[in-house]
């Protein structure tokens, strides 16, 4: 089982961000953390303890987890410690601006062994264009601090496909990233979503599939292998076990305002509003996931990463289409699992098979 903890506070709202995060609710931080611990206790008692389960991975995301002082997390780690597997992966996201050396050290002392920095670029003009609050130097310093403290895993997020990007400018960003002691890289193509400052400004995004292929090839040549459409790791041990859990359709707890849980073939949605969540952290809406939807999700997610899809999941008609795609060198079968050779084509291939 996986555990996701959502921190919805941010120093600034990035122009492309559609996550459930707020820059004007800092006065609610303490009340929010109290409510979060209440929901966490309920979930641990009812979904972990009663079912004799263990937590394999923890991911603290946001928002910006580093906007919450480290001591506020101490009780959370005390609560989850009895339920963790021996070598549990524990990740926190962090903003280079607010993740001080002291904050990172405290989180490491609590048991966090992986940190993911939302860098997005090492080019200051691009950072300003995206609405990021840090600069290149603070990003470099944060990664160096995490390494000197002794984090086992360090991820760097990079965004590409932004107006003005060229393969040369992106390679420059990647070169800086690879000059630093990172073990993992997440390279995301800019997406324009409703509710963001970039919405209705399609000119800020570059749609160039060839650019993606060039970027993937360059990252691979730098010694980081692609194991999902946007994720690259230095070695197998550096891959995100938490993300893999989602792609393998494992159950997960979602704790916090707007977090999503997946238990007993149903999704649970707590309130997105911080105020409503504080008022009743045990309220959530339920969505029953039908068997056919589970199958579709397993195929879509399996084709987007190196996890693949169990062959037995497909019916005879679908297997015929798989054979056809194998002939066209799009898929291959190994150890009774179907694998996709090109993650960028994942959705098209899955929909073709399921049609």
Automatic annotation (TrEMBL):
Listed cofactors: [4Fe-4S] cluster
Tell whether Iron-sulfur is among the UniProt keywords.
yes
Which SUPFAM superfamilies does its entry note? Radical SAM enzymes
Q: Which Pfam families match?
A: Radical_SAM (PF04055)
Origin superkingdom: Bacteria
| UniProt signal peptide | none
For this protein, what is any one GO molecular function term?
Answer: 4 iron, 4 sulfur cluster binding
Keywords of the record, alphabetical order, are: 4Fe-4S, Chaperone, Cytoplasm, Heme, Iron, Iron-sulfur, Metal-binding, Oxidoreductase, S-adenosyl-L-methionine
Q: Which GO terms describe its cellular component?
A: cytoplasm
Q: Name one GO biological process term.
A: porphyrin-containing compound biosynthetic process
Domain Radical SAM core stretches:
1-222
The cellular location(s) given in this protein's UniProt record come to: Cytoplasm
What function does this protein fulfil?
A: Probably acts as a heme chaperone, transferring heme to an unknown acceptor. Binds one molecule of heme per monomer, possibly covalently. Binds 1 [4Fe-4S] cluster. The cluster is coordinated with 3 cysteines and an exchangeable S-adenosyl-L-methionine.
Similarity field: Belongs to the anaerobic coproporphyrinogen-III oxidase family. HemW subfamily.
- Protein name (Swiss-Prot/TrEMBL): Heme chaperone HemW
Q: What organism is this sequence from?
A: Arcobacter ellisii
